[in-house]
Amino acid sequence: MAEGNRQDFHQETGETLNTQRAAMRSLWGALDLPHSSLDRLEFCGGDELPSAFRVSDLAAAAIGAAALAVSELVGTMGRAPRVHVDRRRSALWFGWSIKPVGWDMPAAWDPIAGDYRTGDGWIRLHTNAPRHRAAALDVLGCKADRAAVAAAVETWAADALEAAVVAGGGCAAAMRDLEAWSAHPQGRAVEAEPLIALDHWGVNGDWNWQPQARRPLAGIKVLDLTRVLAGPVATRFLAGYGADVLRIDPPEWDEPGVIPEVTLGKRCARLDLDRSADRAIFERLLSESHILAHGYRPGALDALGYGEAKRREIAPNLVDVSLDAYGWTGPWKERRGFDSLVQMSSGIAARGMMWKRVDRPTPLPVQALDQATGYLMAATAVRGLTSRLRTGQVSRGRGSLARTAAELVRMGPAATTPVWENASGGDYAPSVEATDWGPARRTKAPALVENAPMQWERGASRLRSVAPAW
Predict the structure, then answer these.
(1) Cα–Cα distance for residue pair 86/379, rounded to 1 Å
(2) Mean pLDDT throughout 106-120?
(3) Pairing of strands 41-44, 83-86
């Protein structure tokens, strides 16, 4: 599924690819890997998503970083292969890669989620999770009706409503412009953070695993504790190169609007970490894992009894990769958040409104903060395996949606007039994917590591569909 071949990728040159390579150098530098490796990377395609920002550059660079990290890993055993990245397909994978055949994708958004005008500006309410929906409605004191919510929101100042919803356990973000975010304590904290925070330490014992040329991650066990959307994108990528990805969710969790998109190549199970029997299963799974991917806010895993010290006790040689929404320092480091909220907070939605000359928040054309952070997370995980093979060290890597937003803003405004057409028949791989919902097609692979095509061995599956076991 979604396999590519060399003939599909035709190198192009020009000003677009000059800006693309600048974006790639920045992201690759964050991984602390040799800049000489960039000589093995080629981009093709000149399509541009319509945006005030260089979203297509970010998409191709993030996917390119993950694919080039795979090439680096293969290079530990011999010659590192060349990598080819298609800008159009990268942008398509930043949207929706799946095309159902004879069935419909579940709704992606709760009916009352979205942007609302306040008494002094705009706010976005994120209500996809039932508890977040309940928190917003409780603060507003109204029924679950969009018109009623809009009327209630208009009586509030944006900052005050944001603070009240967050204090009540919900998720909301007032719209700020770029300048306001730069002056905000959290904006300043995020700006000072690295794009990817890397730590390394020594390991105990031997490790006999080696990458295979065609399936570089075969034999690697990835324990996936992530939710929508960045983390699942990361582990989907790892599965595409042969990793055994086991996703674990709590019993009550669901995200129906994205599950068919992000569970490609994975097995999905459930565990209740409030039950001692399930905790024992989890600890056994963790002890046998090579990579742990998690997207909990700072302190959340600690509250479950699985802080960093405990994780290292259970699995001392684990590559640990994680992300959060608003960064790892600053007053908002423990704040719940999602891509659409970070776009509102960080000035991206406000700048989009100016660019489009409209009177309401204008987000990016895709959830690019989630997607880019996910591919950077995947690159960090693969880089951890490379470090283990080359230096005998294991590593921890952390990123955030807010720091990715800062990186996109740093890239500057879109330099060209967008030329974009939505996905058509030729964008999809000819193979049919058997999902738990029915047959589907996938967009052709966005990148090719020569002799190691990106492909998945199982179709998308429902949550909690297998037993929690390797």
Answers:
(1) 17
(2) 94
(3) parallel
Q: Is the pLDDT confidence value at 160 over 70? A: yes
Strands 122-125 and 172-174: antiparallel
Q: Strand, helix or coil at 391?
A: helix
Q: Which long-range contacts (CB under 8 A, 24 or more apart) does 104-113 make?
A: 105/257, 105/260, 105/261, 106/256, 106/257, 106/259, 106/260, 107/256, 107/257, 108/257, 108/258, 109/257, 111/144, 111/146, 112/136, 112/137, 112/144, 112/145, 112/146, 112/149
Q: What is the pLDDT of residues 340-393, one digit of tens each?
A: 999 999 999 999 999 999 999 999 999 999 999 999 999 999 999 999 999 888
Task: Count other Cβ atoms within 10 Å, centred on residue 381.
Answer: 28
Tell me how far CA of residue 448 lies from CA of 36, 41, 111, 388, 394, in angstroms. Answer: 19, 10, 39, 24, 27
pLDDT of residue 46: 79
Of 308, 342, 332, give the one whose Cα is nearest residue 322: 308
Cβ pair 209, 290 in contact under 8 A: yes
**Backbone φ, ψ for residue 111 (5° rounding):** -60, -25
Query: Which two three-digit tokens encode residue 46?
Result: 């000149």
Residues 6+ apart with CB under 8 A from 53: 348, 351, 352, 364, 408, 409, 411, 413, 414
pLDDT value for 11: 57
DSSP class of 228: T
Predicted local confidence at residue 1, as pLDDT: 57
The confidence score (pLDDT) of residue 420 equals 87
Which amino acid is present at 261?
A: E
The DSSP H or E segment spanning 17 is helix 15-30
- Residue 146 has, within 13 A of its CA and on its CB side, a CA count of 10
Residue from 325, 357, 327, 363 nearest 343 by CA = 363
312: tokens are: 């290292």
Q: Percent of the chain at pLDDT above 90?
A: 86
Would you state the pLDDT for residue 339?
97
- Give the Cα-Cα-Cα angle 260, 5, 41 (nearest 5 degrees): 95
The residue with tokens 């998503």 is 49
User: Which pLDDT score, from 0 to 100, does residue 268 have?
Assistant: 97
Structure tokens at 206: 């031997």
